[in-house]
């Protein structure tokens, strides 16, 4: 239902007709080119006032008042000279009322549209606020392969500004899956190597027993075991060791035959060389002593830890297991 009309929207104010306050005829004298000076009948003025009030109520109900205006016009004209102008006066009133109704409808439509736009803007601001919450990467996010500037990711090379300004689309889920695959591969490699060493130990005689001086496993610290130093860095996805250096623990014993006896000295020297290079390489590596034991390049891990600076309440964590990093 339409809202009740205000004082400015009453039929009397729309037509500018106030019969109880103004007693002059609303007719027009053509000879004198002015409004008629004759008074209207008192009874007609009372009738006109009642019709105006009724017309206001009809406008509130969105009812047509054309017939009412035709009845109202004679009531505000003098009976002697200007009753013949009633039809023309009613027609002008109808145009005024029609114009007024259109203006009111346009105003209500504009107000309604403004409300809709305001609601849409508020909703858009709320959605944008929720999206903004995810723009800055939280400390516990998985940024595998995108921490070191210029290193490889699933979509190419990135820089620090690309990572933190959101200019680079980083596929974290496939990279996380790749990490899991590497973990499984590392576990299978360790198991296979242990089985192979056991078989070699059973085949070798006591006088021919040869052992590798360097092992990639480091004694446990508080129940945490370091993973083998092999494969890729969990941050930059580059090899942990120089590809030209054979990781410790991969030296295989040969068959117990004449060729083995002739090459024993060379293999010992080679194992010693591998051991020395592996120790030097291991000094450039760090590993998670909190939970997972995964190895990382020392420089990569330092850059990772630097991302936590300036974030109160967030301690550096392991890029893989998310445990608080232990130095």
UniProtKB/TrEMBL annotation:
It comes from the Eukaryota. Residues 112-129, 253-269 have a biased composition (Acidic residues). SUPFAM superfamilies: RING/U-box. One of its GO terms (molecular function) is ubiquitin protein ligase activity. Gene3D superfamilies: Zinc/RING finger domain, C3HC4 (zinc finger). Residues 100-111, 179-207 have a biased composition (Basic and acidic residues). Residues 100-140, 166-215, 246-277 are annotated as: Disordered. This is RING-type domain-containing protein.
